[in-house]
Each structure stands twice: as C-alpha cells, then as structure tokens.
Design brief:
By secondary structure, the protein is an alpha/beta fold. It is built from twelve helices and 23 strands. A hairpin with a 6-residue loop joins strand 11 and strand 12. Helix 5 runs parallel beside helix 6 and helix 9 crosses helix 10. The longest helix has 18 residues. It starts with a strand and ends with a helix.
Length: 449
C-alpha cells in the first residue's frame, strides 16, 4: 500500500499536493493542514468502486406517501421564538443557533430545555462547560425538571449514538466547533471535523425523529465560523444578534425549511434570564428627549413594525479628514447618504465629524431608514429639532428623491398606536396620516433647515 498525504485548507476545504503559505482559493494564510490519504496501486478508482457497489433505489409514488405530523411541535416559553421557528421545534429537525460570545446562547437554550422538559425528555450536551457550570446556570434559570438531563462530551460518535437510542425528544449540542469524530485525525473545529460531525448528528436525528439544536460559533465579522456546507445541511439557521453588554437582542431565521424567514423575536437580558419584549417601540422611546439630531424612525424587524430613535451628532473636525462613525447602521450607507446630502441639498458636511447611533442596540437593515438618518444629520447640523409627534420613513435615492417603503401600512399603524400625529414618508402612500415627501431638499427646507 502506498501512503500519500495532501494539504487541506481549514477555511474553505481546498486541497494541495504540497504546503503553501497562503490558500489561493480563499486567500487565508497558514490555514493548510496535512492529512493522510491512502491509495493502493493497481486498484479501481473511487468512482469505479462506487459504481460497482451501488444498488437501485427503492422508490414509491409521491401520492402514496403518508407525511409525518408537521403540527406536532415542541413549544418554547417564547411565543415570538415559536413563530420564528415556524410554530415551534419540529420533531426530527436540526437547527443551528449562531451568535457572538456572551450574547446569551447557552441561557436561551437552557430556558428552552427547561420548558420542553416539563413534558418531554431533554438532553443537554456540552463540550465547553463542566457539569458544575451548567448546574449553576440551570439553578439560576429555574431548570429543575427530572426530565432534563446533562452530559459532557466532545465525541460526535458518542453523541450520535445517544441520539440513535431514541430516549430523548430534544437534544442540545453546545457546540459543533468542540466536537470531533474518532475516524478523523484533524483537530476539533476544522473543516473536516465540523462537516463530518454535523453530518453524523443530522443522520442520527433524522433516523430517530429527534429534534436537535446545535450551537455554532461566529467569526469576528459576525458570520458563522466553519464551512458554509453546515448551513446547507441543517433545516433551520438562527442568528442571535445584539449588544452583549445591554440593549435588545434579536433572534431571526436566515434559513427555515418549515416557516418564514421574515419573523424576528426580540429579547432583553434580566437577572432570571432572557425575557421576551412585548412592546419594543414603547420601551425604546421611554427615555427619549426631543433634541436636535433626534428623529423617530418607523422601521421593520422582520414582519414586526418598531419605532426606534435615530440620533445624530455633528461637530467641527479637528483634522483634515472628517470622521464618520455609525452604531447600528451600515457605515458605507452612511457615507453614501452624506454624499447625497452634500450634493442635493447643499449642506456643507466636509468639515464636520458625523456620528450616528441607533438607540437600544438595534441594528438596522431597512432601506427605509435613509430619510430618518438624513433628517437626523440635517437636524444636528442646523441645531433645530423636528416636532416630537412626527415619525419618519422612506428610502433616499442618489438623486435625492424619496422612494417607497416596504409595508407602509404596518409602520403607520404602529405610529398611530403610540400616539404620533403624522408620518413623513414617500409621496406614493395614499394615507392622510402621511405627509408626502417627494425629494430630500424640499423636505429638509420645510421641516429642518
């Protein structure tokens, strides 16, 4: 037998016949790890052996298939999270929960486990924490059910075998980056380990109709660590976002085979764990003071309308290059809006540092937040404030025009519910509550400048 080795990139999985410093596929440095490949001279290739060993599949007509009961789901104590999941955790489904360190992933999963364990058998498997650490969290969160079990393991083989026993209705695996298969020699967290360990657990879950939630780590830019193929393998991918030190935290589905990806659950962290926020708009605006640079935006988090405060601060720059900083808003989008303001409204901003903050730790991905950001900047520069009974929404084009917003009726309904008198929005909306804004320059002259 002739033994060969190859070098595999741990970031993208590309293979090389010799070691190189930088992967030419993903441009990562020092990511190649040597792996042994065994081959026998004179034997058939892998494709030839595969063709010879394959057999014809047993197939049935689709109309004769009896589907499983999709209505039977494991419900959590959070109604909004159940909605995000499509009605609850489906039996036999595999969900991937990703979030930055300290955001509250383990807390959320322990609360889910405690609720499900009231009626079902649950196994919490941790490869990161000891039994004592998990026990302290469980006591703090009131997870004391006899049906809630714990195991500490980093062996994907052992976890898969435990799932195949069929003793548990829900299994929590914390986390996939700590697991390793005995048959693979590479370290835990590498591409091969994450992919194969995930595959092994998913097959076990599907074969026994066991619901599994897997925790995934994220990189410094917020994307899921490890191979992208893991997201394709699982049924649901949940992103846990927010400020780890305070503010609201959101759980949204970026992939869901059993429900919509337009829903979002909003939480806040208290001493007894995570608590669902029933009226985030009222909470976000409770401490607001109407000053220059403060604008109320009617935005959407998934399908949920929320009113959030946009704050802007403009100060004279002390250096030759003005500074632009944004918290909760895309910095590239901010630079574009500043360019539109300077070109279309004649505001002089090239000698000012501009800071934008979205109150409450929210992160905006709504294009209809453009008008509110522009009005906040203009308000801060002019030193004038907008009437506190106005909310704002609308997308700003490069020509300074105000474009239509997604689901304006929900934004308007939320503003009315909280006592606002008018909304400044796109002129295409036919509603007496909305004051039409056709272009950015006219709007700023009328209300701000």
């Amino acid at each position: 037998m002739k033994v060969k080795s190859q070098f595999v990139c741990q970031q993208c999985g590309a293979s090389y016949i010799k070691w190189v410093g930088q992967c030419t596929n993903c441009q990562a440095w020092n990511s190649l790890v040597e792996q042994v490949v065994e081959s026998e001279s004179g034997k058939k290739t892998a494709i030839e052996r595969g063709r010879a060993s394959g057999k014809k599949l047993d197939f049935v007509k689709i109309k004769t298939i009896t589907p499983s009961d999709s209505k039977a789901r494991l419900l959590t104590e959070f109604n909004d999270l159940n909605t995000v999941l499509g009605g609850g955790i489906l039996f036999g489904s595999v969900s991937l929960l990703a979030g930055q360190p300290g955001i509250g992933k383990s807390t959320l999963l322990m609360q889910i486990s405690a609720e499900v364990a009231k009626t079902r058998n649950v196994l919490y498997v941790s490869g990161e924490e000891s039994a004592g650490q998990v026990k302290l969290r469980a006591e703090r969160l009131g997870a004391t059910s006899d049906k809630l079990n714990f195991a500490s393991s980093t062996s994907a083989n052992d976890i898969a075998k435990t799932i195949e026993s069929g003793e548990f209705d829900l299994v929590i695996v914390d986390s996939i980056q700590t697991l390793a298969m005995d048959e693979i020699s590479s370290a835990p967290g590498t591409v091969s380990q994450v992919t194969n360990s995930g595959n092994l657990i998913i097959r076990s879950a599907k074969s026994t109709d066991t619901a599994v939630i897997i925790v995934g780590h994220v990189t410094k830019d917020g994307t899921l660590a490890g191979p992208k193929v893991l997201e394709h393998l699982v049924d649901v991918v949940l992103n846990f976002e927010g400020d780890r030190y305070g503010g609201f935290k959101t759980v949204r589905a970026i992939k869901n085979r059993f429900g919509s990806t337009n829903e979002v659950a909003i939480f806040e962290m208290i001493e007894t764990g995570l608590r669902e926020v029933e009226n985030p708009s009222a909470t976000l605006l409770a401490e607001r003071t109407n000053t220059d640079g403060s604008i109320i935006l009617a935005t959407l988090e998934g399908n949920r309308p929320i009113l959030v405060e946009i704050q802007a601060l403009a100060t004279k720059t002390n250096f030759g290059y003005p500074k632009r900083t944004a918290s909760g808003f895309d910095i590239n989008r901010l630079n574009l809006l500043i360019a539109v303001l300077e070109r279309r409204t004649k505001l002089k901003l090239n000698d000012k540092d501009i800071f934008i903050n979205v109150v409450g730790g929210m992160k905006l991905n709504d294009s209809a937040s453009d008008l509110a950001v522009c009005m906040a900047i203009a308000s801060a520069v002019a030193g004038r404030k907008l009437d506190e009974k106005y909310v704002v929404f609308g997308e700003v084009g490069l020509g300074g025009e105000i474009r239509s917003a997604f689901r304006p009726d929900q934004r308007i309904a939320e503003a009315k519910k909280l006592g606002f008198k008018h909304a400044i929005g796109p002129a295409t909306i036919r509603d007496k509550f909305v004051i039409p804004a056709k272009d950015l320059r006219t709007t700023l002259i009328k209300y701000i400048v």
